[in-house]
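Hi V.,

Quick status before I head out on leave. The structure for the redesign project is tokenized and pasted below; the design run finished overnight.
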């Protein structure tokens, strides 16, 4: 599902010009350490619609205040691991459920239950028109059915007049700062690669298709690098991060993520995006992550009568302290703020 031939050609061309590994964008730092303004970028390759039977391998993790520990209470979270805020944005549309035959008012902040389906959700908004209306929901678990009785914790009561109108969902995502490692590759000998180690958890209430795209961008020059298919790097990175956890790379990470619906326990997919080239002269750069949400919208394209799709995308901003020689992973630092949700 990746356009590997194009990707590898771009990798080969970049290798011809760039003798060292590095990533960043060389824009002046904005006041207060803020990420600099990023010029509009051409859209990346479209996300290819697909349905996969492949279920990604997960590992059970227990959520704690400061990160995650596994069921054996062995710490997995590192000091530089960061979980992204996946709360819906004002531009995101939450799930909605129409109701009729209301006999008692629903209350915002209470839990809604479907009598037949046993589906549950948090009521975060309502539009009441007397005996009928619409509920806006969050934290939906299960599938509400048309015609089933509905009730909430405060005695609200009505009948679902249709199926749930699914809104925007977002997968929970954690990452570490960029890291650097040496690997051996056939025909190329020993070389350096940089990688983004991450975790994905599905708390959306349903299994979701995960088709991530990781793009590293240097805003000043417009250079873009897709994560590389480097199978030999995966076991080396896994040995460094956690030998007991299956780590998925660019080839293996496409598939279904099962829903995490146990109290206190999540099923996490562990993955890594890898780059073996980038601009060693750049001192700031961004990594764009698509595939964490279903939200998108159409905008007019440059060609008259055409449109292009913008997808909800996580942008992670980095700086690198140092020159283009003797690159060290300690030079990679997250900006403040470290990330933003954008549409790309």
């Amino acid at each position: 599902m990746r356009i590997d031939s194009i990707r590898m050609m771009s990798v080969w061309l970049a290798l011809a010009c760039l003798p060292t590994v590095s990533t960043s964008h060389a824009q002046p730092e904005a006041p207060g350490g803020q990420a600099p303004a990023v010029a509009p970028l051409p859209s990346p390759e479209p996300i290819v619609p697909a349905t996969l039977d492949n279920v990604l391998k997960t590992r059970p993790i227990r959520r704690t205040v400061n990160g995650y520990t596994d069921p054996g209470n062995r710490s997995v979270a590192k000091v530089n691991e960061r979980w992204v805020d996946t709360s819906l944005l004002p531009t995101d549309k939450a799930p909605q459920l129409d109701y009729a035959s209301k006999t008692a008012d629903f209350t915002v902040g209470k839990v809604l239950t479907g009598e037949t389906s046993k589906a549950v959700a948090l009521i975060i908004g309502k539009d009441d028109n007397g005996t009928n209306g619409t509920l806006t929901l969050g934290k939906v678990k299960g599938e509400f059915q048309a015609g089933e009785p509905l009730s909430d914790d405060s005695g609200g009561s009505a009948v679902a007049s249709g199926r749930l109108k699914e809104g925007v969902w977002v997968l929970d995502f954690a990452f570490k700062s960029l890291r650097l490692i040496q690997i051996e590759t056939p025909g190329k000998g020993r070389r350096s690669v940089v990688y983004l180690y991450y975790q994905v958890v599905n708390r959306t209430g349903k299994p979701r298709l995960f088709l991530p795209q990781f793009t590293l961008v240097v805003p000043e020059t417009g250079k873009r690098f897709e994560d590389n298919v480097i199978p030999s790097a995966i076991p080396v990175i896994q040995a460094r991060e956690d030998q007991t956890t299956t780590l998925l790379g660019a080839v293996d990470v496409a598939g279904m993520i099962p829903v995490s619906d146990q109290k206190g326990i999540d099923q996490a997919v562990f993955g890594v995006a890898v780059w073996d080239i980038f601009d060693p002269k750049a001192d700031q750069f961004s990594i764009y992550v698509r595939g964490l949400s279903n939200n998108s919208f159409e905008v007019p394209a440059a060609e008259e009568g055409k449109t292009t799709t913008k997808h909800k995308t996580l942008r992670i901003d980095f700086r690198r302290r140092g020159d283009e020689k003797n690159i060290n992973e300690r030079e990679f630092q997250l900006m403040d703020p470290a990330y933003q949700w954008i549409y790309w």
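Above is the designed sequence. The chain has two domains: 4-88+170-343, 96-160.

G. will cover questions while I'm gone.

Best,
W.
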